[in-house]
């Protein structure tokens, strides 16, 4: 007589692995999940780093421009026999931030013994001149008006240089140039002129 065992309650077609204590189907599912997790982890890429230095420089610089100083008519026998003739021109500078400018004026084209002279236009005689001077404004504030008579000559030497405050913006700053023709000069009739070079050092 042959005895038959009842069908397995674990289901038809499902094997049992006694070594793992799990069915082969459950084991397959675990294996598939582990494989999926392994694929989702990015592989580590080898690399190295370096530092890139960045630098720049800003140099001190200034620009300069002027407007002419015109005295007009000098009346040597009337008003200016005893009173000086005064006039104003301007010099403008624009500098890089932090620049410390110094503005100088040379003695013009007809200097004599450290003084400035306008020369009679179209005259070959060095004696036909008209003495004048240029003075600094009373303070270094842009636009400060001239006071006459001036007190500080505006010249080419270090002691006669005009020193505005350091630039705080790129905008142009304008300063008055204070000119004076002393009285009592018995000058020949005609037109007198000179050219002065203004220089900004920074």
Q: Your description of this structure?
A:
The protein is mostly beta strands and 202 residues long. It is rod-shaped. Strands 3-4-8-7-6-9 form a 6-stranded antiparallel β-sheet, with no helix packed on it. The protein has 2 domains: 31 residues; 140 residues, Sandwich (Immunoglobulin-like). A hairpin with a 4-residue loop joins strand 1 and strand 2. The N and C termini lie far apart (123 Å). It contains 1 helix and 10 strands; from the N terminus they run E-E-H-E-E-E-E-E-E-E-E.
Largest pleated sheet:
6 strands, antiparallel
Strand neighbour order, sheet with most strands: 3-4-8-7-6-9
Q: Quickly count the helices.
A: 1
Question: How many extended strands?
Answer: 10
Distance between the termini: 123 Å
Q: How would the global form be characterised?
A: rod-shaped
The CATH architecture assignment of the largest domain turns out to be: Sandwich
List the helices and strands and how they pair.
Elements: E1 16-17, E2 22-23, H1 24-40, E3 62-67, E4 85-95, E5 102-105, E6 116-120, E7 129-135, E8 173-181, E9 192-193, E10 198-201
Antiparallel strand pairs: 1-2, 3-4, 4-8, 5-10, 6-7, 6-9, 7-8
Q: Key features?
A:
mainly beta; 202 residues; Immunoglobulin-like; rod-shaped; 6-stranded antiparallel β-sheet; 8% helix; disordered N terminus; two-stranded antiparallel ribbon; 2 domains; 1 helix
């Amino acid at each position: 007589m042959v005895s038959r065992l009842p069908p397995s309650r674990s289901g038809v077609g499902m094997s049992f692995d006694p070594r793992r204590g799990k069915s082969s189907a459950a084991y397959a599912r675990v294996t598939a999940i582990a494989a999926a997790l392994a694929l989702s982890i990015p592989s580590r890429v080898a690399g190295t780093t370096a530092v890139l230095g960045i630098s720049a420089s800003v140099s001190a610089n200034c620009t300069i421009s002027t407007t002419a100083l015109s005295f007009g008519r000098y009346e040597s026998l009337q008003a200016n026999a005893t009173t000086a003739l005064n006039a104003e021109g301007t010099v403008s500078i624009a500098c890089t931030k932090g620049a410390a400018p110094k503005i100088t004026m040379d003695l013009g084209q007809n200097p004599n013994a450290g003084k400035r002279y306008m020369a009679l236009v179209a005259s070959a005689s060095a004696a036909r001149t008209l003495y004048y001077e240029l003075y600094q404004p009373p303070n270094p504030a842009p636009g400060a008006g001239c006071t006459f008579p001036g007190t500080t000559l505006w010249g080419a030497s270090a002691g006669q240089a005009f020193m505005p405050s350091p630039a705080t913006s790129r905008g142009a700053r304008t300063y008055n140039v204070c000119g004076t023709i002393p009285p009592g000069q018995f000058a020949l009739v005609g037109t007198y002129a000179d050219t002065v070079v203004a220089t900004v050092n920074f």
